[in-house]
Amino acid sequence: MAVALHFDAELSDDERRARLYRGELFLYSPRRATRELCDFARELIREAFRPRDPEVAQHDLPVEQFAAILAELKPRFIHHPESKRLIRAVLAEFGCDPERTYFDVPRLRTSTSDAYLTSGIAYAFHPHRDTWYSAALCQLNWWLPVFEVQENNGLALHPRYWAQPLRNGSREYNYAEWNRTSRFIAASQIGEDTRRQPKPEEEVDLGGEIRPLCPPGGTLLFSGAQLHSSVPNSSGRTRYSIDFRTVHRADAERGAGAPNIDSSCTGTAIGDFLRCSDLTRLPEPLIEAHDRGFGRPPLPGETR
Ligand SMILES: [Fe+2]
């Protein structure tokens, strides 16, 4: 299936979302707010690894020490008030309505080279859709590299699976359950990651994958239903990137979004999202409706 890849498209947010829900992809050049967000992340990262260069520090640090630095650095970035301020500035710059656009806290991701650390705090993501992890079908993913990325250390998209179901383990995933049992032990998962995650249960054809490259502060935007993965890093450099997600309230209310072709997880992540204008959450009845499966029609043969 062919998908469109838009470059610096000047579309309204409504039009862009409609296209993202059809599997189209958007790549943007650095803008003022996205540059600021990446500069801020880069500063925190450099501070955490000083005097080492964060992109190559993995080569002269014991892996436990590297993981310990990330275990402090990542929550610092995630929960920093400046991160929230900058995300809101980014979304304003992209023309998202601050009254109806909700975002979750930005994550700082690392992908180390040569399988130095691929579990827990620096988990190397297997091909997945966020919708296997209780994401709403209207969830959009925003991804920004913090340092220069290369074709062998970034993110891969697998758009051939946009309309092609993959057998997967999402039936065993429930967001609330994951939060209770697995999320907070990430830093202890060195060597092997024992947390149960929804994975493909058949071979994934990686041919035809797209590895979007943009300069630091550039932005990739795609639907949370798009199959994506971490590119196995063989670049010799640790990749640092920022990602965050958004949902538009009107879409969450009317159950709009990408089609569900293969996800049968339960629960919802939508309760984490904060409104741009005032950082309030979505109304409780709407979160509860999504928790019960609103907006995600059951798959053929699925029982709830
Ligand atoms: Fe993801």
User: Which compounds are bound in this model?
Assistant: fe (ii) ion
Instruction: Please tell me the overall pLDDT.
Output: 93
Termini, distance in Å? 31 Å
Q: Mind telling me the C-alpha Rg? A: 18 Å
Q: Helices and strands: which structural class? A: alpha+beta
Q: Strand share of the residues?
A: 5-15%
* Number of helical stretches of at least 4 residues: 7
What can be said about the biggest beta sheet?
8 strands, mixed
- DSSP summary, beta strand count: 10
Helix content: 25-40%
- Write the H/E string, N to C: EHEHHHEEEEHEEEHEH
User: In one word, what is the shape?
Assistant: globular
- Spans of at least 5 consecutive residues whose pLDDT stays below 50 are none
Question: How are the elements arranged and paired?
Answer:
Blueprint: E1 5-7, H1 13-20, E2 25-28, H2 32-49, H3 63-78, H4 81-93, E3 101-103, E4 107-111, E5 140-145, E6 155-157, H5 175-181, E7 219-223, E8 228-230, E9 239-248, H6 249-254, E10 274-275, H7 284-291
Parallel strand pairs: 1-2
Antiparallel strand pairs: 2-7, 3-9, 3-10, 4-9, 5-7, 5-9, 6-8
The site of fe (ii) ion has 3 residues, from loops.
Model description:
- It is a single chain.
- By secondary structure, this protein is α+β, with helices and mostly antiparallel strands.
- The chain has helices at residues 13-20, 32-49, 63-78, 81-93, 175-181, 249-254, 284-291; strands at residues 5-7, 25-28, 101-103, 107-111, 140-145, 155-157, 219-223, 228-230, 239-248, 274-275.
- Strands 1, 2, 3, 4, 5, 7, 9 and 10 form an eight-stranded mixed beta sheet that branches.
- Strand 1, helix 1 (13-20) and strand 2 form a beta-alpha-beta unit.
- The longest helix is centred in the first third of the chain and has 18 residues, at 32-49.
- The protein is globular and about 50 Å long.
- It binds fe (ii) ion.
- Fe (ii) ion binds at residues 128, 130, 228.
